[in-house]
Amino acid sequence: MTGGATWGEADKGVFEAQDGDLCLLPEMVAILARLAAEDADAGDPTLMTPEEGRAQAERANVRWNREMPALFSETAFEVAGSAGSAIACRLMTPSADADGLIVFVHGGGWAFCSMATHEHAARVLAIAANAHVLTFDYRLAPEHPYPAGLDDCAAIWNAVLEGQGALAGITGPRALAGDSAGANLALALMLRQIAEGDVLPDTGLLFYGVYDDDFQSRSYIDCAEGPGLTRAKMMRYWDFYTPDKSLRKSPFISPLKANDAALLKLPPLYLNAAAIDPLRSDTARLAGRLSALGRRDQYTLYPGVVHGFMQMNPVLAEARTAAEEAASAFLEVAGKMKTT
Fold first, then answer.
1. Hey, what domains does the chain have and what are their CATH numbers?
2. What secondary structure letter does DSSP report for 3?
3. Quick one: CA torsion of 200, 340, 332, 75, rounded to 10 degrees?
4. Is the separation of the CB atoms in 91 and 103 below 8 Å?
5. Are 118 and 247 contacting, i.e. CB atoms less than 8 angstroms apart?
6. Furthest-apart CA pair in the chain: how many Å?
7. For residue 147, cis peptide bond before it (omega within 30 degrees of 0)
8. How many other CB atoms are found less than 10 A from the CB of residue 84?
9. Spatial distance between the Cα atoms of 139 and 87, rounded to a whole number of angstroms
10. In this structure, are residues 313 and 323 in contact, taking their beta carbons and an 8 Å threshold?
């Protein structure tokens, strides 16, 4: 379904994009023209050294992280990682009466981006939900392939459960959220928690995630050449994260390979997808499987926009709508928790 879906609408059975969804919005056309002009001399970060590629990704995202929305407070701290290294964290508090916590895992193909590249988007989500939002810098591929990033996410989640440091005293609902590869890590962590019998979040907020390595899906064919993310780039990202392709059979790497029993145990999910995105079918297939199991998760397909559109919050209305929608899903779970 497209635009503004509500909880349970995914069970109507419409998950994939329709022809009209694949036409770029006029606003998206203008943004892409701007990016083409601003990045005319920039290379493909997936074809650079990791250091060069990350520098390029940081530069490219500066434009989305100007004029930051104001917060009540912001706290920088560290959490001990599973490998003994310190994981840099940032806790964003939108108001004095903020309630609940959203752990936000940034995207970037498991190889690029950081707390800084996604700060504006995280602040917007915090304000919309009036909840604390925690961001952090996990270890990146290819130097640190699977399971390094996922292990760091698990260390952060354990810190949340234990109320470590700046996280002490935070009450209310807890969510795991992420965009793109960050959505993969958030969902994979939930599935690993299920397998290990450990504590799950109250909800998951997953934005245009990568959930399988099926490069022949409809959207990988539709959007093989972009605009923006391409099939070739995604294949390189997968090779960075899991150079041993045999590992990709694991649901902790490819969540769509999880069995039905595990999917049934997931908390309520908010899922969205961009129509013009090689990853679109990943979310459509996930929404379809969840619906077939009788679950009532929220799924919204945003027509006319490309992968990563929520980063474009300062200039794209659909990005702001998606943030508000995700916040509403979080608040609905919070409301249900208060009445039970």
1. 9-338 (3.40.50.1820)
2. S
3. -60
4. no
5. no
6. 56
7. yes
8. 6
9. 8
10. yes
Per-residue DSSP letters for 90-155? Answer: EEEE-STT--SEEEEE--STTTS--TTTTHHHHHHHHHHHTSEEEEE----TTTS-TTHHHHHHHH
pLDDT in tens, 140-177: 999 999 999 999 999 999 999 999 999 999 999 999 99
Q: Say how far apart CA 319 and CA 325 lie, in whole Å.
A: 10
H or E segment to which residue 77 belongs: strand 73-80
In whole angstroms, give the CA distance from residue 191 to residue 258. Answer: 8
In the structure, what pLDDT confidence band is assigned to residue 213 with cuts at 50, 70 and 90? very high
Helix (H) or strand (E) holding 61: helix 50-61
Count of alpha carbons within 13 angstroms of residue 3, beta-carbon side: 8
DSSP assignment of 228-285: SS-HHHHHHHHHHH-SSGGGGGSTTTSGGGS-HHHHHTSPPEEEEEEEESTTHHHHHH
Rounded CA-CA distance 285/46 in Å is: 27
Which tens digits make up the pLDDT trace of 53-76?
Answer: 999 999 999 999 999 999 999 999
pTM (two decimals):
0.96
What amino acid is encoded at 219 in this protein?
S
